[in-house]
Structure formats: C-alpha cells, structure tokens
Design goal:
Blueprint: E1 2-6, H1 10-14, H2 17-31, E2 35-38, E3 52-56, E4 59-63, H3 71-77, E5 86-89, H4 94-97, H5 115-120, H6 125-131, H7 135-145, H8 157-166, E6 173-178, H9 187-194, H10 196-210, E7 214-219, H11 224-239, E8 255-260, H12 270-277, E9 301-305, H13 306-310, H14 312-318, H15 320-324, E10 327-328, E11 331-332, E12 334-341, E13 347-352, H16 357-364, E14 374-379, E15 386-388, H17 398-403, E16 412-417, H18 422-436, H19 442-445, H20 447-459, H21 464-481, H22 485-489, H23 491-500
Parallel strand pairs: 1-2, 6-7, 6-9, 7-8, 12-16
Antiparallel strand pairs: 1-3, 3-4, 4-5, 10-11, 12-13, 14-15, 14-16
Helix pairs in contact: 6-10, 6-14, 7-8, 7-10, 9-10, 9-11, 18-20, 18-23, 20-21, 21-23
Length: about 500
C-alpha cells in the first residue's frame, strides 16, 4: 500500500488541496492502486501548495504545486517516481532543511487530529515530565529557558506565570490568545489546524504550573478549520485522560474549551479579550490591576498567545538549556517568521533569533514576486514600523529592533516593492487604528482620525512644514497617552514612513 499525504491546512485548501485529495482517491480506485491517504498538516511552503507527498523507502517524495488535473499523470509515471512536478525528498529542500524547527517540528509530518501520531512524534513528553515536578520547578524551567511572549510586548513568560502562581484566588485560569489579527501572520492558525495537541499540552502544563484548573482558547472567528481541529483534539485528549480529572493518574485536573472571537482586532489586546470572553463588548481595561492578579472573571489569569504556549512542551521535554541554546542576547529560542506580501516564496520559516531580515527576504523569500527591488518591509503587523533596505542586516532580536523603534511582534513580515507609496501606507495605518479602535481613550479614538486628515493635507502640499510638525506632535500624543498598544503603536508605521521615505509625503504633480 502506498501512503500519500495531502495537507488539510486552510491555505492549502484555498489553493485546491481538497480537490487534489478527491482526485487522488478517485484515480487510485479507478486504477485499483491501494493507497492510504492522510490529510497532514502543512509544512508552510505555501508557494508549493497543494503539496502532495508520497512515502518511499528513501523518505517522502514531494510534488507541487499539484492541481486535480495533474493527478492522472502522477499515477501514470507511478507515485514516488520522476515527474515534472517532482521536488525530490521534501526534507532535503533547502528552504526546509536550513530551518530550526522546534515549535513546528511536526508541521507537515503528522495527521493533526491523530493522538497516536502525536504521541509517536514526542508528543506529551513535556507534560509527562511536568506531572512529576513541583509547580515552582516548572516555572523555573520556563524562566531559565528565556521564553518571552511571542506577541507584541515580549514579556518573559516565566515571570507572568510566577505572578499567577503567587496570586491568591480560589480559581485561576489559563487563557490562550488565538485572535491572530495582524496582517501577514498565520503561525497561530497553523498550530491550531496542524498541531492542536501541542497547544493543548502547553496550556495543560501552564495550568499545572500555576494551579489553574480551567483554560480557554480564544480563537479568531475566521479560523473555522482551526476550531474544528482543536475541538476534535480536545475530545480525544479527554477520552484518553490527557485532559479532565486526575490526568494520567497524577491527581492533577485541567479542563479546556474553545471560544470563538468576536471579529474585532482590538480583542487581540489581552484585557479586551478578557472582556469579550466574559460576554461583554471588547474594550480595553485600565491597568493595574494586571490580569495576572485580577483577570478573567476577576481571577488570577495567565494570558499567552498560541506560539508562546506551543513553545512550552519542548522546554519541559528537552530542558531549559536546550531551548536557551538557540537565539541571541535576551532573545532566546526560535521564532516562526511568516513571509507575506509581495514575496516570491511566501511561507513559514522557523529560525533562531539573530537571523537577518536580508537572509529571510532573499535566501528564503527569494525576493519579490514582481521581480522588482524590495523598498520596505513591515515587521510585526499593522502596528509595526516600515523598515528600509538600510536596516535589512539588523539581527532579528527584540532589543536590537527596539533601539530603532521597530518591533518583532508576532513575526509577520509583509514585503513591498519599489512601486509602493509610503504616504498611502502611513495613512492606512491611521485609518486602520480609527476603524479598529474600541473608542475608550481619546488619543486613539480621535488622534487616528485627525492623523488621516493631517496626512491628507501634508500630501496635498497645504503648509507642509506645519502639517509635518503637527503630525509628529500628534504621534507623540498617541504614543504617550493611549490606553493600549493599538493607539500607542499606530504612530510607529507613520513615523517610520515619514522618516525613511520623506519624498513620498511631498505634493504630487497634478496631470495636465
């Protein structure tokens, strides 16, 4: 019997993976070829999707991108043999082979909802170790690993967990922020769809570490495939005693459920997320108190995003020193970088901190899809700065980026070629903030609207010196006075565009 793999990732499905899988099953039946068709997770090489893999004695042979009409020719030459779409051994593809995959070690390899598959590929080893440890020892391992939140603030995960452990409360919670709304990001989605047990394991470890017996995954409402995979995996985890009461005979208890988001970008902010999770309108809370002290339903709460929690199992499995060995400075471990926008080879690249943007854009991304020079790159989502070519050799490092008012954020990288109008991009940043603001604080609610107006006057040549000064002053007000990061960071892309691409803000010539 021949084992064939076709991804069930939503990006692959959008490119025709379901149709390819149906065509493979039909052609095998027509020719009487015995196959085992597995809908695996995606490896993140999206320019090759739909990617078909065939198991051979030498390893998995890849074909891609495959469309339904190509399937008959694959069978004609024999699955696993030479074909114009043949990529050779998938594991030997340079794009994949040169990565350091810790969080995405199983990506593309396993059936996402098969618990047996997960266990066969080192799954639940971290939890098994954690069940034999004291809570403080678990937190010490996470702290010693150097793991920081893989969101915007990059706050050390171990410190947050220690605060919740020490906080008083009859009930404590673990909340996973899966409301992945940043432009050009999809790593959270890939975990939820492609390795859901990893997130479940990470949250269970967190619960045991801080004394929380209940967890919630707040998932972006645009991720129905992720919801389906998570719920299927959660049901299997309960059925096999990896969730619920007396986990694996340890006496530990942890319950978990998925809640779908409200479709608002602001709910990616942790306190607005808590409001939404409690059934209220997603609006930012004042801090203090911190969620670690008074979070969900007024109880001590750990809030981490998907990638942060999915990084925990490997730390508890292989040890803090193993994880800390990757990275540079205070940025330890790996970051799943997501290449998007005008890029030739868009996909997920997991690398240790310290890799340069130039390496990511050219060695992995292959430059722009248009073939034109890269002019600017936005790192960290819609609130991230626009980085010019002069900074492409900067190492991917939280502190190195912060020194230049850049941010790593969730690792989303959106690429623009030399046809981009940076004044338009700056205006879009203010417009995005105005649209997505919860409206609670004046600098964000009013400042973003005024920002669009000032940029319009600046580009129109209406007293440009005065307008630029006003725009900078407005950005300072938003930076210093906004209640949360939406208003507080919306000026980053505006100021970076203004500083690095000033010519784009000059009056445009009017056609005769």
């Amino acid at each position: 019997m021949i084992t064939v793999y076709v991804s069930r990732d939503s990006a692959a499905i959008s490119l025709g993976a379901d149709e390819v899988a149906v065509a493979i099953a039909a052609e095998a039946a027509r020719q009487g070829v015995a196959i085992k068709l597995i809908r695996n997770s995606s490896r993140g090489l999206f320019w090759l999707e739909p990617l078909v893999e065939v198991a051979t004695d030498a390893g998995r042979i890849g074909y891609g991108p495959v469309q339904a009409e190509d399937v008959a020719s694959l069978f004609a030459v024999g699955l696993g043999n030479a074909h114009p779409l043949c990529l050779g051994l998938v594991e030997e593809l340079p794009y994949l082979k040169t990565q350091e995959r810790l969080t995405f070690a199983r990506a593309g390899i396993t059936d996402p909802v098969s618990l047996d598959d997960y266990l066969a590929h080192d799954g639940y080893k971290g939890l098994k170790n954690a069940l034999a440890m004291e809570p403080a020892a678990i937190i010490a391992a996470v702290t010693d690993s150097g793991l920081r939140g893989r969101g915007g603030a990059a706050f050390p995960a171990g410190i947050k967990w220690k605060t919740v452990l020490g906080a008083e409360g009859a009930q404590k919670y673990i909340v996973c922020n899966g409301d992945e709304g940043d432009s050009g990001t999809y790593a959270d989605r890939m975990v939820c769809e492609g390795d859901p047990y990893l997130l479940i394991e990470g949250m269970t470890i967190a619960g045991i570490a801080v004394g929380a017996t209940r967890g919630y995954i707040y998932l972006r409402c645009e991720y129905p495939y992720g919801e389906r995979a998570l719920n299927e995996a959660i049901a299997a985890a309960y059925a096999n005693n990896w969730l619920g009461a007396n986990i694996q005979g340890s006496g530990k208890h942890f319950d978990l459920e998925v809640r779908m988001g409200a479709g608002a970008y602001i709910c990616g902010e942790e306190t607005a997320l808590l409001e939404s999770l409690e059934g209220k309108r997603g609006m930012v809370r004042f801090k203090p108190p911190l969620p670690a002290i008074k979070g969900l339903f007024g109880c001590p709460t750990v809030i981490n995003n998907v990638i942060t929690l999915a990084s925990v199992p490997v730390i508890l499995d292989k040890g803090a020193a193993f994880y800390k060995d990757f990275g540079t400075g205070r940025s330890r471990g790996t970051l799943p970088v997501q290449l998007a926008g005008n890029i030739k080879f868009g996909g997920l690249v997991e690398k240790a901190f310290g890799v340069s943007l130039r390496d990511l854009l050219h060695t992995y991304g292959g430059g722009t899809l248009s073939g034109r020079p890269i002019r600017a790159v936005q790192v960290g989502g819609p609130l991230g700065s626009y980085i010019p070519e002069s900074q492409f050799d900067l190492p991917l490092d939280y502190e190195a980026y912060a020194k230049l008012n850049n941010m790593v954020g969730h690792g989303g990288i959106t690429v623009f070629d030399d046809t981009v109008d940076m004044a338009e991009q700056a205006r879009f940043s203010m417009e995005f903030c105005a649209t997505e603001s919860c409206g609670k604080c004046t600098p964000c609610r009013i400042g973003s609207t005024r920002g669009m107006e000032v940029i319009d006057r600046l580009v129109a040549g209406d007293q440009p010196v005065k307008q630029e000064a006003l725009l900078r002053d407005l950005c300072d007000t938003m930076l210093a006075g906004s209640l949360c990061a939406l208003g507080g960071m919306a000026p980053f892309p505006v100021l970076s565009a203004l500083n690095h691409f000033p010519d784009d803000f000059r009056p445009r010539a009017t056609p005769a």
